[in-house]
Write a structure and sequence with these properties.
Rossmann fold, four-stranded parallel sheet, 19 helices, 403 residues, single chain, 9 strands, five-stranded parallel sheet
Length: 403
């Protein structure tokens, strides 16, 4: 184990050329025009679209980084507002990098790390999040012991005591939130039907650290990461399956080079099982569904085709695409921990995504991320919409054959 867990520590100063050379061309403000069918869906930066000032787009935040580096500007409440309303969805980098080879998202992430390291970052609203993680080892501040109950409830191995071929890393939200337990149960049953030897860590599973990365507290994140990796390695599992897209991005981008097991998101594993014939969807379904690409699963890990192949394997289901999909997807409103501080802002973004589902005549939004499920559900309530939100695993299990 390397002393410095995760990928090599980077500093904002290493990206000086990126933020110094940004020409404010505004390509980061929206999607590539040739990929947009309706002008209504051109804008894709949640904070820029909401606040409509340059500082709230990636181009403006690049200028904030440049000006701070040259001591041309002081940190003010307005500066912090512009920094922490970013949902870190990555749309800016998706548009910018292929054209100009600039990394605006990485600059924003490292600007937050600089803010924490120098003591001028974070907001009072962030304190409860950090406290829960410090005291309870999970994002929701729940007793870790409750996770041990899942071993018996799900009928899986205790990976801290028995060897298993596949370790299921459940994540904080699927572990504790009752409204998400249905998807968790479906995940386990599908994995077992596919022949997987499944185990979980129960109370030995800690938060993956994604909220800390998003806030910029890298030191705290690495403490969680180092402990998680040691516990995962001790199980001897060959594969680690994540349910949450945030966990998936942390495992894929940060943990992967430092642990023995290979990480995959559950949609990757299940789509392969369907392709091999280890699982077969037989029962016909009804309805028109649109797959919502979670930012951290799609743009960060490029997992686009696997979820769609799962939906296409369910007979009778009609699948349509959002106007903004794949690399152009719109954030659900829950990214970057912005909604934790600015809930009304998060709700507005979620409502916009629900409107887009209505626009393409989808009766159900399907996804595989607890943050997305929660935010989109709030958007449905905010719009009083008839659209539903479903986890892809529950839909597939109904077609494969119930419990």
């Amino acid at each position: 184990m390397k002393e410095n867990l995760t990928k090599t520590r980077e500093l904002l100063s290493q990206y000086r050329e990126d933020y110094a050379l940004c020409s404010k061309c505004k390509i980061c403000h929206g999607n590539h025009v040739q990929e947009v069918n309706h002008a209504r869906f051109f804008r894709n930066c949640p904070s820029g679209s909401r606040f409509r000032y340059e500082a709230y787009y990636a181009s403006g935040r690049m200028e904030l980084a440049r000006a701070l580096n040259l001591k041309e500007i002081e940190v003010t409440p307005q500066y912090l507002h512009a920094l922490y309303t970013c949902m870190e969805c990555g749309s800016c980098q998706e548009q910018c990098y292929p054209v100009k080879q600039i990394f605006p998202l990485r600059v924003i992430e490292l600007l937050r790390e600089k803010a924490v390291a120098e003591g001028w970052g974070l907001l009072p609203e962030h304190a409860p999040i950090l406290k829960k993680l410090e005291e309870s080892d999970n994002y929701l501040g729940k007793p870790q012991a409750e996770r041990d109950k899942l071993i018996k409830e799900l009928g899986v191995k205790d990976a801290s005591k028995e060897k298993c071929g596949v370790l299921l890393f459940i994540g904080c939200q699927y572990s504790y939130k009752s409204e998400l337990k249905k998807a968790l149960g479906s995940a386990v049953r599908l994995l077992r039907k596919s022949g997987a030897d499944v185990g979980i860590l129960g109370s030995k599973e800690l938060c993956c650290g994604a909220p800390l990365l998003e806030l910029g507290d890298r030191d705290f994140f690495e403490a969680f990461g180092k402990e998680n990796i040691e516990r995962i390695d001790a199980t001897g599992a060959e594969t680690v399956i994540t349910l949450c897209s945030h966990c998936a991005s942390v495992f894929g981008e940060e943990y992967a080079g430092f642990m023995k097991a290979s990480p995959v998101h559950v949609t990757q594993y299940i789509s392969e099982a369907l392709a091999k014939g280890d699982l077969k969807a037989g029962k016909k379904a009804k309805g028109t569904v649109a797959w919502h690409d979670p930012c951290r699963l799609g743009r960060r890990l490029k997992v686009y085709d696997e979820p769609r192949s799962i939906l296409d394997a369910i007979p009778g289901l009609k699948r349509v695409e959002f106007e903004r999909s794949r690399g152009n997807t719109l954030c659900c409103g829950g990214g970057g921990m912005a909604a934790a501080v600015y809930p009304e802002f998060g709700l507005e973004v979620a409502k916009e995504r629900v409107y887009e589902a209505e626009f393409v005549d989808a009766d159900t939004i399907v996804t595989a991320c607890p943050w997305c499920e929660e935010m989109l559900q709030s958007g449905i309530g905010g719009r009083k919409s008839k659209v539903k939100v479903e986890n892809i695993l529950t839909l597939l299990e109904e077609s494969v054959g119930g419990k």
